[in-house]
């Protein structure tokens, strides 16, 4: 460099002034006369040497009326080596068009100021020792009140000895800056050939104008800093020196920012062995046409203590990253050592679409950086043939470091048409967490939010996925998932919302919408827990909310803390029912527990809630703590029942979990059911329900079990019902613990209730087809419409506990409280009255005076005409007592009917009572106790 300088100094003294003037005009670099010591331009072949100018301290000032460089030309600022800043202004009205090389001596920073605009053509290049600032500002400020202005040119003040600290825009609309440079720029620190505008490694390259347009050009500041910024109105942009490099530190809050764009395979890169940052401050920012903004640790570079710089994108309106190959990323490259930097996006609207990607990742020995997005609206849409549109923070295959966290803060988030937001690990490093805070979240189509381990050989733990929102909608085959394909544990999925809806399936392949944590096939790590806290949760049209294992690891637990839960319908493509489940479909992993807490639970049209196993692990428990539970209907396609269940599948070896329901009201109807069952080798779980009332209306509570010979004397499901008020069965409903299979014992049924009523061929059965029946214990105050039978009838409501033979029948015990006979006796008055004066003749049978009626109210059944004779007591036996007494029936009620006095006075009855054996007695008015609730009256009809 010193030799070149001496050569050009020699040329200065040998060229005449006439030639200088002519050649200066040809070079389109024309000094003006505003400086005390004006700038000089000397032409030597294709090189223009700029000397002279005014020096103030370590600052050198140049002023030109025109400044442009043609192709293949070089402009050398021939400054002294002690100069720190070269500040060049253009005071004329022409745009600076740079198609050649700009060069300076030493390590001086170079400022090019032209309020008319600056264009860097495809052959433009830089060879300067310091930072480069190109701006269409009107002036540069020094200190608090000194300026070097291009629009109001004056000689620089003697006070301009300090570094520039601000750029001043006085124009209503500032002129643009454009870069299309693809000139050769040497090799980057990783040894790859690069092109475009390049400053020395570790230095800054700032383009600050009105609009800043990178059109097919490239900008390089490896290990340094690139800033693209500007104003579209009057205002001030502050400059700050950081480690001998310039950066923009602040903008006037009232000033309107200008647009910045990168198009047509443009590239901005600062990748090095450490450091390297990029900042964009704009109104609108667009990265399109396979353009790239990249930072991080380059291939094979870095050390354990190095950290890459950050990428910060700020836009007051919109940031758009569009098209396949369009990226904004901060990476630790393969074989690199050191930690990656962060990517921060602040804007009103963020749109990433058509295969574009924004993210952080690590392929090397360092940790990946964080990705943080803050916007009112975030939209990720579509995919290309090769790439999904995505926001990501990833730990890639062969990486040792951990992935960074991904955080989205938005008013609304839309992810659709194959796009995804992910925090994944593919290697040994831990995946970062994914957190979304947004008022409205819509995940649509083959799209998703993921925190996963995506490689079977990977060992890194997956980060957690947390969603905080008012409304979360996952539909048309979309996925929100935390999962693992490898040995690492899956992350937890936590959803906090007002409304959560998971609906439907993908219209292309029928894949169901899912909200899930999973251990995938071949994985050995455990799945994470899934927790939903919301006001409403709706799972519809074949969608699924689940925690499952398909490998050797265990399923996570599923916790639903929701006021209103609805699980309904089926997938229109393959009739898959809507599900809320934990399950094991793998080899040895256990299914997790499922807990639902809320006010209302509705399961209808084939919807299913439960825990199940289909492999070697055990099933989880299902616990429902809900005020009102309704289980109704079946799948409209295949007829599968709506249900609550814990189960084991065929060929499974593990035991099923227990099912517990704590509710005020439970309704099971229209073929639906509550099931605990085992179809494999393991034991079925137990069903226990604690409720104020249970209504089965063509519904089932089932502990049915099947088995094979290899598991003799298998213990089966027990059903225990604690019902405070009423247990009602109607329209063919069933409570059953039937067992099928050799040596399989029927389960026990325990019922404790105030009133048990069953009608229309509704049964309670604990039968075993091939072995011993279970036991039935009923403790109730009132029993209606059902009785014990050795063999069930097809037209009556029955209680049975049959086995393969009579000797193998189970025991049936029905207990009702003891009744004190004296409660039905009332002492007669000693003051006798004339009975004929106390009896109304209006109810005389056959009277022609009035058309009278005699109505008995109380238990079910048609009233008997008073003109008919009294019937045998067996007529009423179906209400309260059983025919006969089988050997295995133990009844605790042994009280005798109330005594009737000899030769009683005949008084017209006004009520009736029933003794403990079901006998009905008509009683006189003074014998009607306040406790007797069965009465009748006569009504006159004229």
From TrEMBL:
Keywords: Signal. Residues 30-143 form the Filamentous haemagglutinin FhaB/tRNA nuclease CdiA-like TPS domain. Gene3D superfamilies: Single-stranded right-handed beta-helix, Pectin lyase-like. It comes from the Bacteria. Pfam families: TPS. Residues 1-27 form the signal peptide. NCBIfam families: adhes_NPXG. This is Filamentous haemagglutinin FhaB/tRNA nuclease CdiA-like TPS domain-containing protein. It comes from Dulcicalothrix desertica PCC 7102. The lineage of its organism: Bacteria, Bacillati, Cyanobacteriota, Cyanophyceae, Nostocales.
């Amino acid at each position: 460099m010193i030799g070149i300088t001496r050569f050009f100094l020699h040329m200065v003294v040998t060229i005449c002034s006439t030639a200088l003037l002519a050649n200066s005009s040809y070079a389109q670099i024309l000094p003006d006369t505003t400086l005390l010591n004006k700038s000089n331009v000397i032409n030597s072949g294709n090189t223009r040497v700029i000397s002279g100018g005014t020096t103030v301290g370590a600052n050198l000032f140049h002023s030109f009326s025109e400044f442009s460089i043609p192709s293949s030309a070089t402009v050398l600022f021939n400054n002294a080596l002690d100069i720190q800043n070269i500040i060049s202004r253009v005071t004329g009205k022409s745009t600076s068009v740079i198609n050649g090389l700009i060069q300076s001596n030493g390590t001086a920073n170079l400022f090019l100021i032209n309020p008319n605009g600056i264009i860097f053509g495809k052959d433009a290049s830089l060879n300067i020792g310091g930072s480069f600032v190109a701006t269409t500002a009107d002036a540069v400020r020094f200190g608090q009140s000194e300026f070097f202005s291009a629009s109001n040119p004056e000689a620089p003040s003697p006070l301009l000895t300090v570094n520039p600290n601000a750029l001043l825009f006085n124009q209503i609309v500032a002129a643009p800056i454009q870069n299309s440079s693809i000139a050769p720029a040497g090799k980057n620190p990783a040894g790859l050939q690069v092109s475009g505008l390049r400053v020395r490694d570790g230095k800054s390259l700032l383009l600050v104008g009105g609009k800043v347009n990178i059109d097919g050009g490239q900008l390089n500041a490896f290990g340094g800093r690139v800033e693209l910024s500007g104003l579209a109105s009057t205002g001030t942009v502050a400059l700050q020196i950081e480690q001998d490099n310039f950066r923009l530190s602040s903008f006037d809050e009232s000033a309107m920012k200008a647009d910045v764009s990168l198009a047509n395979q443009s590239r901005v890169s600062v990748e090095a062995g450490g450091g390297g940052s990029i900042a964009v401050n704009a109104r609108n920012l667009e990265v399109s046409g396979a353009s790239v903004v990249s930072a991080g640790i380059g291939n094979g570079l870095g050390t354990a203590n190095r950290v890459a710089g950050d990428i910060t994108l700020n836009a007051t309106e919109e940031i758009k990253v569009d098209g396949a190959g369009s990226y904004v990323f901060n990476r630790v490259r393969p074989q690199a050592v050191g930690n990656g930097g962060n990517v921060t996006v602040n804007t009103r609207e963020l749109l990433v679409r058509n295969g574009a990607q924004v993210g952080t990742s690590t392929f090397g020995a360092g940790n990946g950086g964080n990705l943080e997005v803050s916007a009112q609206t975030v939209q990720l849409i579509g995919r290309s043939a090769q790439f999904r549109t995505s926001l990501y923070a990833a730990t890639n295959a062969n990486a040792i470091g951990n992935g960074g966290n991904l955080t989205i803060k938005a008013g609304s988030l839309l992810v659709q048409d194959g796009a995804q937001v992910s925090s994944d690990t593919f290697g040994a490093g831990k995946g970062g967490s994914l957190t979304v805070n947004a008022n409205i979240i819509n995940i649509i189509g083959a799209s998703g939010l993921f925190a996963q381990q995506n490689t079977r050989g990977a060992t890194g733990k997956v980060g957690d996925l947390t969603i905080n929102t008012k409304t979360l909608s996952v539909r048309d085959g979309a996925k929100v998932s935390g999962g693992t394909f490898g040995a690492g544990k899956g992350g937890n999925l936590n959803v906090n919302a007002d409304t959560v809806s998971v609906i439907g399936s993908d219209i292309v392949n029928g894949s169901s919408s899912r909200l899930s944590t999973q251990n995938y096939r071949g994985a050995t790590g455990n799945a994470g827990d899934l927790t939903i806290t919301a006001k409403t949760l709706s799972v519809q049209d074949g969608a699924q909310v689940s925690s499952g294992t398909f490998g050797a690891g265990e399923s996570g637990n599923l916790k639903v803390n929701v006021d209103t839960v609805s699980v309904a319908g089926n997938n229109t493509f393959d009739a898959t029912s809507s599900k809320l489940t934990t399950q094991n479909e793998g080899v040895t992993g256990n299914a997790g527990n499922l807990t639902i807490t809320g006010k209302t639970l509705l399961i209808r049209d084939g919807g299913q809630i439960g825990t199940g196993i289909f492999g070697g692990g055990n099933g989880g428990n299902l616990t429902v703590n809900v005020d009102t539970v309704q289980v109704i209907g079946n799948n409209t396609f295949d007829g599968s029942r709506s249900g609550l269940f814990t189960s084991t599948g065929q060929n499974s070896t593990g035991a099923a979990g227990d099912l517990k329901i704590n509710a005020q009201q439970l309704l099971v109807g229209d073929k639906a059911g509550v099931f605990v069952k085992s179809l494999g080798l393991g034991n079925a779980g137990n069903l226990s329900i604690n409720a104020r009332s249970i209504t089965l209306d063509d519904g089932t509570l089932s502990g049915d079990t099947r088995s094979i010979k290899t598991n003799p004397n298998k213990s089966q499901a027990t059903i225990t019902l604690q019902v405070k008020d009423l247990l009602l069965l109607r329209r063919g409903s069933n409570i059953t613990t039937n067992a099928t299979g050799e040596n399989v014992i029927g389960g026990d049924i325990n019922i404790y209730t105030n009133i048990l009523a069953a009608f229309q061929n509704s049964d309670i059965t604990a039968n075993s087809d091939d072995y011993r029946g279970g036991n039935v214990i009923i403790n109730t105050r009132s029993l209606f419409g059902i009785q014990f039978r050795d063999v069930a009838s097809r037209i009556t409501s029955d209680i049975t506990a049959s086995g393969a033979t009579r000797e193998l029948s189970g025991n049936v015990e029905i207990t009702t409280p003891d009744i004190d006979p004296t409660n039905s006796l009332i002492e007669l008055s000693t003051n006798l009255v004339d009975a004929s004066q106390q009896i109304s003749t209006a109810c005389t049978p056959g009277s022609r005076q009035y058309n009278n009626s005699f109505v008995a109210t109380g238990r079910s059944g048609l009233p008997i005409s008073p003109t008919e004779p009294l019937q045998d007591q067996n007529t009423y036996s179906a209400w309260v007592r059983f025919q006969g007494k089988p050997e295995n029936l133990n009844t605790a009620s042994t009280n005798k009917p109330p005594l009737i006095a000899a030769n009683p006075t005949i008084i017209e009855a006004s009520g009736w009572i029933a003794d403990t054996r079901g006998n009905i007695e008509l009683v006189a008015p003074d014998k009607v106790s306040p406790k007797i609730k069965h009465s009748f009256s006569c009504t006159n009809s004229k």
